[in-house]
Amino acid sequence: MNYVIIGNSVAAVGAIRGIRNHDSEGTITVISRENHIAYGRPLISYLLGGTITEKRMAYLPEDFYEKNRVNLLLGSEVVGVDSDKKRVKLAAGDTVPFDKLLIATGGDPFVPPIEGMSGKEKVFTFTTWDDAAKLKGLAYDIQRVVVIGGGLIGLKAAEGLYQLEKKVTIVELADRILSAAFDRTAGRIVAKKMKANGIDVITEDTVVRIEGDGAAISGVTLKSGDFIPCDTVIVAIGVRPAAGFLKGSKVEVNRGIVVDDRMETSAKGIYAAGDVAEARDFFTSSKNPMPIWPDAYIQGDVAGVSMAGKDKGYAGGLAMNSIELFKVPTISMGITNPSDEKEFEILTYQDQENYQYRKIVLKDNLLMGAVLVGAVDRAGIFAGLIREKIDVAPFKDKLLTVDFGFIHLTKEIRSTLFAPQGKVA
Amino acid sequence: MKRIYSIEDACIGCHLCEVACITEHSQSKDPVKAFLHEPVRPISRCTVEEWDGGVISLSTNCRHCDEPDCLRACISGAIQKQENGVVLIDTEQCVGCWSCVMACPYGAVQRNLNKKKANKCDLCPERENPACVDACPNRALVYKEGSQK
C-alpha cells in the first residue's frame, strides 16, 4: 500500500501512527510546503516572545520519521489532485502516485482586502514558524503594532509582541475577545488583565484603512473614525481550510473538505483530517470545520486507521481550548455561549477581581459545555462528562465547586474508572 | 501493562499516598526535607478525594491510557507514550499550556505552578512498586496487570 499525506502537522502525525498501528509494511510519504519537520504550531507565540528556543519547536522525538519509515518531501507544494488517476501534482511539476491519500493541509490565514494594504511592507499573518521567525527578525524595527482580530491567534501574537516590549493594540469586531470560545464575562476578565498589562483592546470596531506613504505604515483608521498610530499590522481574522488546490478534483469541498466518520471524502481512497476537514460535530451531528488541536490529532488517527483498511469510530468533534494569557489560565469546551438560553441551564460563579470564573452549560441534565477562568485544574473531568453523556442531576450542585471530582459522581463510575478488575491478590 | 488501581472501600483517606508521591519525587527522598526544606516542594501526582467529612474517599491517579487524551492535546509534543506503555511528560519540553489538564478525563494531570509545568504519574521508574502503592496502610492501592477501564 502506498500512502501519501499532504501536510505535516498534528493530523498527519496522528495518521502516521494510526497507519503504522495496522500496517508496518506500506510506504508513507509526507508532502509539506513548509521546510520544517512537524512542530508545535501553537508554540509560535512562545517562540516570538522568547519563552522557548527554536530547539523546543520540535513536536516529535528525533527518530520518529525514521522509526515509522516516513519519506519526507519538505518544501513541496501540492497544486492538484487527480482523484481518478490517483496522483498528486507538485508545484515543481512532478507527480506523486498514491493508493490512499490524506489531505491534512490545515488552514490558511484569511486576509480580507483592506484599503491601503497593498504595497505595505509590514503587514503580516501569524500561523507558521516562518511567520514568527520573520516577525522576530524584524523586531528591532517594530515599535507599535495593531493586531486585527481578537481570536486565539491574534491574542497570542499580541502576547508574544508584548514580551518583546512592543506597544500593541487589538481591534476586534465582536463585542468581546475570543468570541468563539468565550462568553462575555470570560472575555471581559481576560481583556481586563490584558489592559492592566498595557495592551489596548478595542471591541466592536474594525480597521477600514491602513495609512502611510509608500511601503511604510503610519497607522490605521477604524470604522469608528479613530486613528491608531502603528508601524506594523498583523492580520489575525481567522483561518480558512487550505483546500484551494482541490479545484477540479472530485473531492467535495464545502467550507472544509467534507468527510464521513472514517474521515473519507466524497472521492474513494482520499481522506481528510484536521483544520482542513469538515467532520461531524459531537453535539449536532452536522458537519463543520473545527480548528482544534486535539481534534485534529484524533481525526488524523481515525483517518490513518481507515486508510490501513480498519475501522475506528469517530465520536464527533468537541471544541476545546486551553489558553493562558498574561498569566490568567482559561479552559473552555463544548457549547459555552448558547444562543437560545431557554433550552439550556446555566450555572456560574465569578470573582472578577481575582480573575476567577466558572460557567457550566447544561441541557436536560447533560453537560454541554464549560468555561473555567483561573482555577482550571482537572477541567478534563468535564470533558469526560460531556463525552460519556453522564446524567449530572445527582451532583449538579457540586459542579461549580473548585474541588469538584469523582467523589461527587456515582460509586459505579468511580469503580469503573479506578477499581482493579478481577481478583485482587 | 501494570497500572495502579484504587479500592474505594479500603481507602481510609489518610493521604499517605500523596506524601509518598511527593517524597519520591523530591530531591532528598526524605519526607521532612521534601516538605520543609527543599526550595520547591513537588506536588502529588495522585489525588485523594474526600466527601462527607472523609466518610467516602478515593485516591485517583493516571490510567496510562492506551490512547491518551493528554498526549493528543499536548501542543509541544512533551507527552509521549513509552514502549512499555508508561505515559510521560518531558518537563523540559512542556510549556505549561494546560492542554493536557483540559483533556484528561481522569483529572490526572496536575499544574505545577512553581515550575509552570504539567505534572503526572510516572509510575516511579526507580522503584519496583510505585511509592503510593507501597505507602498505603490498608492496601487500597494495588499495582497489577490490567486494562485501562
TrEMBL record, chain B:
GO molecular function, one term: 4 iron, 4 sulfur cluster binding
Keyword hit for Transport: yes
InterPro entries: 4Fe4S_Fe-S-bd, 4Fe4S_Fe_S_CS, ET_IronSulfur_Cluster-Binding
CDD domains cross-referenced by the UniProt entry: CooF_like
Any single Pfam family the record assigns to this protein: Fer4_11
Domain 4Fe-4S ferredoxin-type: 2-31, 85-114
Domain of life: Bacteria
Keyword terms, alphabetized: 4Fe-4S, Electron transport, Iron, Iron-sulfur, Metal-binding, Repeat, Transport
Protein's UniProt keywords contain Methyltransferase: no
Name assigned to this protein: 4Fe-4S ferredoxin, iron-sulfur binding domain protein
